[in-house]
Amino acid sequence: MASRKLLYDGLSSFLGCALMLLLSAMSLRADPLGEHLKRQLPILMERHGVAGVNAVILHEGREVWAGSFGMADPEAAVAMTRESVFRVESISKPVTAWGVMRLVERGDVTLDDVVWEHITSWAPPPETPGMTIRQLLSNSAGLGIGDFTARHPPGAAPALRIAMEGDFAVIGAPGAGFHYSNTGFNLLEILIEDVSGQDFGEFMNEMVLAKLGAGQASFDWSAALADRMPVGHDLQAQRIAPHVYPARASGGLLADIDAIARFVRAGMHAPHRAAEDGLPDALLAQMHAAQVPVGGVYGVVTDGYGLGHFTETLSDGRKVVWHGGQGHGWMSHFHLVPESGDAIILLTNSQRAWPLFAGVLREWSNALGVAPVGMARVAHLWVLGLALTLALALGAAAQASRLAIGWRRGRRRWQRPTLARHVLALGGAGLIAILVWAANQEYLITDSVLPGLSLWLGLAIAAAGLMLMLSAFFAPHRA
Question: How far is CA 60 from CA 71, 212, 461, in A?
Answer without folding.
Answer: 30, 18, 48
